[in-house]
Structures are given as structure tokens and as C-alpha cells.
Specification:
The structure is a single chain. By secondary structure, this protein is an alpha+beta fold. It folds into two domains: about 190 residues, Oxidoreductase, molybdopterin-binding domain (Sulfite Oxidase, Chain A, domain 2, Alpha-Beta Complex); about 130 residues, Sandwich (Immunoglobulin-like), CATH 2.60.40.650. Helix content is about 15%, strand content about 25%. It has seven helices and 21 strands. The strands form five sheets. A five-stranded mixed beta sheet has the order 4-3-12-7-8. Strands 5, 6, 9, 10 and 11 form a five-stranded antiparallel beta sheet that branches. Strands 16-15-19-20-21 form a five-stranded antiparallel beta sheet, with no helix packed on it. The two termini are about 30 Å apart. Bound molecules: ligand MTE and molybdenum atom. Ligand MTE binds next to loops.
Length: about 425
């Protein structure tokens, strides 16, 4: 792939076109230049929000049930809900809008952090029990990480990016590295796997390789600058950066070091095929490079031709995103996107691409490459890899990280390119 830096003159020319585009379409001229009118004031009834803030009543972005099941249902059980990625600004998902998933419908544990403990036992020299306060005294780390559910898949029926990609979110997590705790306990040489267990009825338990535990797993008590929310695992959750969401055990109460893969409640269905093999585990668990355009995306509408900043998110379980490209002509030509900020390892990063829409029907899409050189596949490539028809790729096992096209009609309406 050839890459050309725009010459300065070309840059100025584009800048001028952009400014011209603005006066013509995107902004109204300031006629008369009167002082703006005073808005009404927020008074009285909302003063409770001084103690803990609330957003403007004009901002209504919300999570939606994922997979057609209401959450909570008639019995009060919670199921998967998806993040409104189409409304997000910046790379951090607000905690109130972070997607959440319960492996089976569940009531959320209501845990008193003063009573809660984390036990580490099994193949260790010194089994230990940590209170939440014990953990908070230890050396801490703060890192940006995404989590993504295996249920985050493209479909022909999905209309919005919330429906196609909303089962991933990105937060700033604070906690103690699991390796710090394991060094205190002393891991025996025979320990090859560890099992993490949650406190709720079904335990949300999973087996993971010890090498991952010693690398970058974190016991998080903080999320976006405050305590982890109950829906996301209060008071303690395991972060397994870059691994499929189901491994990020919420309401974490126990870690057992073991010598072999343990079958757990989570080992249902096809999701975990092949993962018992130590050699393939690292790859089978890891989320592939993935990106999606969040603006313009399904069910949004472009008011007319002219300048648009295409925006989207990219992430990979393999490390930091190295490059994102955007196509605005259905995948014929690919253009290098810009990053906002420096892409972090196993975190969403925000990309942008400056676009002049000429008003004709087209398809826009993004693709990415991560720092270890893995590239996001198209759906055609996935079909070839699995030796399936295009249609069958919507139900192949494992995670779906394929390119998502959005179709832009002449009237500016945006729809799922697979619909
Ligand atoms: N204890 C426990 N941990 C759990 C789950 C669960 O049901 N119980 N759900 C898992 C699944 S399927 C996913 S995708 C992630 C979602 O994390 P979040 O709810 O914080 O977004 O948590 C995982 N951890
Ligand atoms: Mo999940």
C-alpha cells in the first residue's frame, strides 16, 4: 500500500474548501451580531444533583437490550444491554452507558465492600484472602481497556451501530495487577491455568492461562475515576485485557491456580471450542483487530452534501491499533485515517477522516491493523477462511471482527450495508 503525505499547498486548498463548505451549508451567518439570549436556569428540584451530578435533560442517549430480550425482564432478571456508540464523543464510554452482560439472566449481586474478600488458592505456596481495603493499599495501575462480548456480531437485521457493535465499551480501569497478588502467594511450577469465579449464583467462572495472569490481568476496583459500578462487577472485577468479554469476571471472589483446564459454567456451546489446548488458547481467547465507523452510521442522516468528519472506533486484543483506513467508495480506494490521541494497548482508539460528500449514493467502511500486524478481515475473507457462503458467515463460531459497511443514500439516509 502506497501512502502520500498531502503537500502543503494541497492542505491549504482543502482547508479553504472546508471553510467554504461551512459558510454554505453547516453554519448560519452571524447576522446583526446580537448578544445571545439568556437560557432558563436549572433550579430547586434538581439541587440533589449537586451531590452527585446528572446530565442535561436534553441529552437522552441510552443503552438498549441486546438480542431482543428485555432487561430487566418481568422477573427483574438482567440480560445483555448495548452501548449507544453512535452518540459517544471521545474514547471513554461513560460508566452509565457501558454495555453490560450477564452470562445467564441474573439479579445483580448487591455486595457490601466491607464484607467482601478475594481468595487466591490452589497451586500456591501461601493461599491468601484479601479484603477490598487490603487491595487498595497495594501498588496500583490505571489503564484504558475495552471489553467486548462475543455476542457483538454483524447481522443483516441490525439497523444501528448500537445493534451491530454496542456490545463493546472502553473505560479507564484502576486496580492491582494480578501478578502482584500472585507473587505474594507464590505460584507453584505445576500451575498452568487459573479459574476466576464471581459471587453470583452462576459464578461466571472461567479458566485462563497462568501466563496471561502474570502478564497484564488486573483486579479492578476503579472505573472512570470512581468505584466500579454494580453492573460491571462492584466491588472487584477481573480485567483480562484483550480477551473475550466473558473472561472479565465480575463480582470476583476467588481465583484458583490449577494444573489443567477446568470446565466451568461458562464452557457452554461452541464459544469455547479448542480453548482447552494450551497452545491455541492465547489466540482463541484474544479479540482480533476491529474497527467501525460510528458517524455516519445506521439510521443517522446527512443533511446534505459537503464536509463531514467521519469518526469511528478501532481496537484489538493483540495490542495497540497501528493504522486505520477509511473507504468512501465501497472499498475500492482506502485512505489513511487520523488518530485522536495515541492508541493504547487493548483499548478503543478514536479515528477520524475528513470527507467531502458529493451527494451521490455510496458505501463507507473502515479497516484496521494492530501493532503485531494483524489486519481486520472483510466478510468475503471470513467466508473464504471458513469455506462458507457469505450468508453463512453471519453465524460462524467465534468472534466476528469483520469490516462493517454503511450505505449512504442520495437523500443522506444511512443504513446497514448488509441489510
Ligand atoms: N461473574 C460474572 N462475570 C461476568 C459475567 C457474568 O455474567 N458473571 N458476564 C461476562 C460477559 S459474557 C461479558 S461480555 C463481560 C461484560 O462486562 P460488563 O458487563 O462490565 O460490560 O463480563 C463477563 N463477566
Ligand atoms: Mo459476553
Amino acid at each position: 500500500m502506497r501512502e502520500k503525505r498531502p503537500a502543503r499547498r494541497e492542505f491549504l486548498r482543502n482547508g479553504a474548501a472546508l471553510a467554504g463548505g461551512f459558510t454554505l451549508s453547516a453554519a448560519a451567518p452571524a447576522l446583526g451580531q446580537r448578544a445571545p439570549a439568556q437560557p432558563p436556569m436549572i433550579k430547586g428540584e434538581r439541587q440533589g444533583e449537586i451531590a452527585y451530578g446528572a446530565r442535561s435533560k436534553y441529552v437522552t442517549s441510552a443503552r438498549i437490550p441486546h438480542g431482543g430480550r428485555p432487561s430487566p425482564d418481568n422477573f427483574g432478571l438482567t440480560f445483555h444491554v448495548a452501548t449507544p456508540l453512535q452518540d459517544q464523543v471521545g474514547v471513554i464510554t461513560p460508566s452509565s452507558l457501558h454495555y453490560f452482560a450477564t452470562t445467564r439472566g441474573a439479579f445483580l449481586p448487591d455486595i457490601d465492600p466491607g464484607q467482601h474478600t478475594l481468595m487466591i488458592h490452589g497451586l500456591v505456596d501461601r493461599p491468601l484472602t484479601f479484603t477490598v481495603d487490603d487491595l487498595k493499599r497495594l501498588p496500583s495501575v490505571t489503564r484504558l481497556h475495552f471489553i467486548e462480548c462475543a455476542g457483538n456480531r454483524a447481522s443483516r437485521r441490525a439497523k444501528t451501530v448500537q445493534e451491530t457493535h454496542g456490545m463493546t465499551s472502553n473505560a479507564e480501569w484502576t486496580g492491582v495487577l494480578l501478578s502482584t497478588l500472585l507473587k505474594e502467594c507464590g505460584v507453584k511450577g505445576s500451575a498452568k491455568w487459573f479459574v476466576a469465579e464471581g459471587a453470583e449464583e452462576v459464578k461466571g467462572a472461567s479458566s485462563m492461562p497462568v501466563a496471561k495472569a502474570m502478564d497484564d490481568c488486573m483486579i479492578a476496583y476503579g472505573m472512570n475515576g470512581e468505584a466500579v459500578r454494580p453492573q460491571n462487577g462492584f466491588p472487584l472485577r477481573l480485567m483480562v485485557p484483550g480477551f473475550e468479554g466473558i473472561f472479565h469476571t465480575k463480582w470476583l471472589q476467588r481465583i484458583k491456580l490449577v494444573d489443567t483446564y477446568y470446565m466451568n459454567y461458562n464452557d457452554f456451546g461452541h464459544l469455547h471450542e479448542g480453548k482447552q489446548d494450551n497452545r491455541v488458547a492465547a489466540l482463541a481467547y484474544q479479540i482480533g483487530p476491529k474497527s467501525v465507523i460510528t458517524f455516519p452510521s445506521g439510521e443517522q442522516r446527512l443533511p446534505g452534501k459537503g464536509f463531514y468528519e467521519i469518526r469511528g472506533l478501532a481496537w484489538s486484543g493483540g495490542g495497540a491499533i497501528k493504522q486505520v483506513e477509511v473507504s468512501t467508495d465501497g472499498g475500492k480506494k482506502w485512505n489513511k485515517a487520523q488518530f485522536q490521541g495515541t492508541p493504547q494497548r487493548m483499548a478503543h482508539c478514536l479515528f477520524t477522516y475528513a470527507w467531502q460528500w458529493d451527494g451521490s449514493q455510496t458505501e463507507i467502511m473502515s479497516r484496521c491493523v494492530d501493532e503485531v500486524g494483524q489486519a481486520q478481515p472483510t466478510r468475503e475473507q471470513i467466508a473464504k477462511y471458513w469455506n462458507k457462503t457469505f450468508d453463512q458467515t453471519f453465524s460462524v463460531p467465534g468472534l466476528d471482527n469483520s469490516v462493517q459497511p454503511w450505505r449512504i443514500a442520495k437523500d443522506g439516509s444511512v443504513t446497514n450495508g448488509f441489510a
